[in-house]
Prior knowledge:
- The protein is of the alpha/beta class.
- It has 2 domains: 2-58 and 128-293, P-loop containing nucleotide triphosphate hydrolases (Rossmann fold, 3-Layer(aba) Sandwich), CATH 3.40.50; 66-117, Alpha-Beta Plaits (2-Layer Sandwich), CATH 3.30.70.20.
- The protein is 36% helix and 29% strand.
- The strands form 2 sheets. A 9-stranded mixed β-sheet has the order 3-6-7-2-8-1-9-10-11, sandwiched between helices. A two-stranded antiparallel ribbon has the order 4-5.
- Helix 5 (151-169) runs parallel beside helix 6 (184-190).
- 43% of the residues are buried.
- The structure holds iron/sulfur cluster (2 copies).
- Residues 62, 78-79, 81, 83-84, 99, 104-110 line the site of one iron/sulfur cluster.
Amino acid sequence: MKKILVISGKGGTGKTFFTASLACLAGNNKVMVDCDVDAANLHLLLHPDIKKSGIFKGGYEAEINKDRCVKCGRCIEVCRFEAIKAIVNKDGNIEKVFIDPFSCEGCSACKLVCPANAISLEKKESGKWFISDTKYGPFIFAKLDVAAENSGKLVSEIKEKAHRIGEKNKAQYIIIDGPPGIGCPVISSMSGIDLAVVVTEPTLSGISDMKRVIQVAEYFKVETKVVINKYDLNLNNSKDIENLCKNKDIEILGRIPFSLQVAKSIVESIPYIEFSGNDIISKLIRNMWAKISSV
Length: 295
Ligand code: SF4
Ligand code: SF4
């Protein structure tokens, strides 16, 4: 079972449009995963029929037992995240102590100093995962709550679910739409991968972010190949991408020209391969899939 990760280093390069096209080309003997848990969007193109869902508990949050609290204020002093607030009466005495759940990092410092054993750390709900069927095969995705943390852990969890489904179905591929950037979720996406396909664009930020994500792949010793999307928008920058890849011995899988049809396919929520029939971009993506699948 080959694991193919599509990444970009930054958002907006066309990563999801490319991944959805692979969903159409890779046959049904595969599992699709959207590891962009902070802003999942592959489901908008794959139209999943959700079969199972569950709660993700990613971190801890402090809770104060008001019956035990003696209002000493020590927890407020030690909280480096200013997550504990107090209501103070006109005489300057604490009337109530409470925790702002959006600021609490679950570090336990308050629990350690509380003289009344009034603070407990509870696992907090930080998102949801979904297992679905699509006409392209099983598809797993997740949504992290706003301002929730531990996205890397959620990525690991949905990758593990995809792996189990893949093993059970004897799938040939797991195709992963990776998160943008180079942070925790990307590192988590990268583990156990056979090939990372970097979709980039010929802008300065596209080049800079591509370099960073290639460094991450190098660190994890993951084979990398590159797709230049909208290559004709800046031929000089596209040349720079090609030179950079040549120096690192990274294969350019293909160059996709800019087309308003791509934006139209996304607006209509149809994977490009199905939307366009057999135009030049579809042919290019088919050629790229032939190279990817031969790895
Ligand atoms: S667990 Fe840490 S972050 Fe949360 S309230 Fe206590 S001291 Fe502050
Ligand atoms: S340290 Fe404990 S007893 Fe003191 S204010 Fe905080 S919760 Fe209440």
